[in-house]
Give the backbone structure.
Amino acid sequence: MRIPGLGCRTYLRLLESLLPQQLFSESPTSLSALGLKSDIIQAIKNPDWTTIDYDLEWLAQDNNWALTLNDPLYPEQLKEIADPPPILFVRGNPELLARPQIAIVGSRNPSSSGIDCAYSFAQDLSRHSFIITSGLALGIDAASHQGALSVGGYTIAVAGTGLDRVYPARHKELATDIVNTGAIVSEFPPGTLAKANHFPRRNRIISGLCQGLLVVEAAKQSGSLITARMALEQNREVFAIPGSIHNPLARGCNALIREGAKLVETTQDILEELSQYFQQDEESLASEVQSTLDLEQQTLLNLIMFHPTSIDNLVEKTGQSVEIISSMLLILELQGHIEAAAGGCYIRIH
């Protein structure tokens, strides 16, 4: 992995005929016959032991792993892509990589509603036992990781750097929280700095690990759309949340829907497509919500729309006093069914 110029595709091609340890005992003539250039052959015969010692020191630390393609912990779904990383570096729990995952990606500069949307979808999908996978970037990525963590769910971050550093640096605390219960992964060895060309490579791992990929907000030209198209090439399900034709952050999602991505309005839209990974039926889902509410609270919840609904409107429809309605609204808000909006109104969340 540390041989300069020995890229992922060449590495995989060599693995078709040689074990890695055999490579170092081959003669220069044999290596040349394998199509390797003279500078690569020279590096194989004279490895840079300083960087290798650094890797071994990193691997000696708790919760640090390097998974090769034949490692039992290397995720099978990632092996299916055209160019899987020959080595996957992991901090945290590598066993989670084999679990059903939904990737959530989107803009680094999203709207507040985009952040809320990513956060709440990550929460709901986590409650249904999916692991949330994203790229640790600003904006939608961070909101997705945080949403999963907020309900005690698991989340996986795919990095575009070596795992001895965090990019962006302001996500150091978030990265620590992810490692404590989930995992951060990278194909780049320790010490690797962030470079622009690393992130498209990172994106193929995000889509390769997941069973389905959700795009929350994305401009017409964005890395999220590249990830979505990689997911389509990898035969993953692609979901997109639509938006206003006047919102530049919705144009990427709307374009994906035109190209065949599934339009998503609720978590249930995703669960329907990934039912083989999800055992809970609609009946038990309904009872899960209702079990925490009494009949009056459930009736009131059914009257609150997914757009602002005023207290006066609820008082008129129920015949209850403002005090009783306000009390029930507080309970519904605390339980996460609704949220307050401007003008004394409330909006249903799910």
